[in-house]
Amino acid sequence: MTRLVLGIDIGTFETKGVLVDDAGRVRAEARARHELSTPRPGWVEHDADGVWWQDLVTVTRELLGHVGDEDELVGMGCSAIGPCVLPVDEDLRPLRPGILYGVDTRAEDEIRELEGLLGAEEILRRSGNALTSQSAGPKALWIERKEPEVAARTRWYLTSQSYLVARLTGRVVMDHATAGYYHPFYDLAAQRWDCSGLDGTVPSEKLPETAWSSEIAGGVTAAAAAETGLPEGLPVVVGTTDSPAEAIGASVMSAGDLMIQLGSTGFLIQVHDRPVTDPLLWSAPWVFPGRYVLAAGTSTGGTATRWIADQLDLERGDGDAALFQRLLELARSAPPGANGVLHLPHFSGERTPFHDPGGRAAFTGLTLGSGRAELARAVAEGVGHSIALALESLVEAGSKARRIVAVGGGVKNDIITGVVSDLSGHDLLPAETLGASYGDAILAAIGVGMLTEEEAAAWPRIGAAITAAPRDDPEAQVIRTAHEEFTRTYWALRGVREESRA
User: Are 77 and 236 in contact, with CB atoms under 8 Å apart?
Assistant: First the structure.
């Protein structure tokens, strides 16, 4: 009898699922595409039922078709984009679309209100974080202030995967790693909710219980079994957001491990054995007790390359993989530095290190000789520059990585990874496993006792290192010069924008 675990991850544009056996081998995988909703500038949302739950049902049913008579499905794990804010009623019915993570910038007024109540220093002391667009707490307060009729009916504020787990098991629970992003309502040191000094904002009773990601949340209910085809009673772990799950799926588990996630946005996680805080970065508990992370993120990554592919009208009839390969081949036909064309990929503002929701994308250095290749290469290099800046912020805050693992679709873009490697001076280890859904399967395997954390670290496959170019390499010097120009250009454009507003 072969034991199997199921992992499902809901991403920004795609849901992925894997069925994994007790040796860590992927038996089957499934995918479902969905769309992002941007009803207003600065608003980014998903339909919790139409996207999160229906994708889970679709992918799960497809994967269950690969479970044979000699197999035993023993557990399941879910992850999803986050931290998100979804208000639900007593019966777990969503009351509005889910508000997404740091790319949604609607809650600036609520950030100022919370800072006025507690003070920036107390917020940093309590939560280990300054309030930014990545903070879920202000977005919950936005609902309380801007949509009082929704707030009045809200029983709980959930994140994406906690909604899925609640639908599967009936238990309302959020993992500590995600709760740690609900600043300022989570005490990082005490690892519990703390709403003291915040009366009249988000009621503490609307925040769910917390648990660790590999703990069993409960068994699949009869109602969920009927919808998904899962066995009633199947153990489901508490789970986590997509980035920590992706890290677990890439063997980033212990202090000194650092993950660079090159997805629709960029996200970086450094694991520590103690809390490390910095006002420009995000500190949170890790998925396992006794460990913490310091994280950074950009607002744009793969979405910028998708945008330029659309603008260049590249053929996309045979799928995303072929589309991005065409874009990469076009970009490679321009030299490093894109013949002087520089791109700032701030389509949705920027997170680390600028925390500037009002930032906007730009091209500079264009001439009449600039063509499609220069634009394609400049966008890829711009994404690399933004990731490198986020990595620099982690280093400046005291993070010292013993190994850096790169994950996500952007790993296939050697222009992006080359820029990051050359600027940081670090080799990057590309993960060859299937991302966050594989991490979900690992968490499920740990939760049901199929393997230990130490054994789990050996499941993911790591490819050949992407090596950093020598300091005196001419092409690397071109990229370093462009990197300095990238930062100066950002501050210059920000200065113009702020003067215009004034």
Answer: yes
Strand-strand pairing, 45-46 and 216-219? unpaired
- Which tokens go with 440? 């979900």
Per residue in 133-159, pLDDT tens?
A: 889 999 999 999 999 999 999 999 999
d(CA 310, CA 458): 39
d(CA 24, CA 210): 28
Give domain 252-430+469-502's CATH architecture: 2-Layer Sandwich (3.30)
Phi, psi of 264 (to 5 degrees): -60, -35
DSSP notation for 151-173 = HHH-SEEE-HHHHHHHHHHS--E
Residues 6+ apart with CB under 8 A from 377: 331, 332, 334, 335, 336, 338, 341, 415
Q: What is the pTM of this model?
A: 0.86
Q: Which of 417, 439, 442, 419 is nearest to 430 (CA)?
A: 417
Every domain of the chain with CATH number 3.30.420.40 lies at 2-244, 252-430+469-502
The pLDDT tens digits for 105-126 are 999 999 999 999 999 999 999 9
CA torsion sign for 302, 304, 307, 313 is negative
For domain 2-244, the CATH architecture is 2-Layer Sandwich (3.30)
Helices (H), 214-297: 222-228, 242-248
Phi–psi pair at 300, nearest 5 degrees = -140, 140
d(CA 45, CA 48): 9
CB 500 within 8 A of CB 494: no
Question: Helix 302-311 to helix 320-332 angle, to the nearest 10 degrees?
Answer: 80
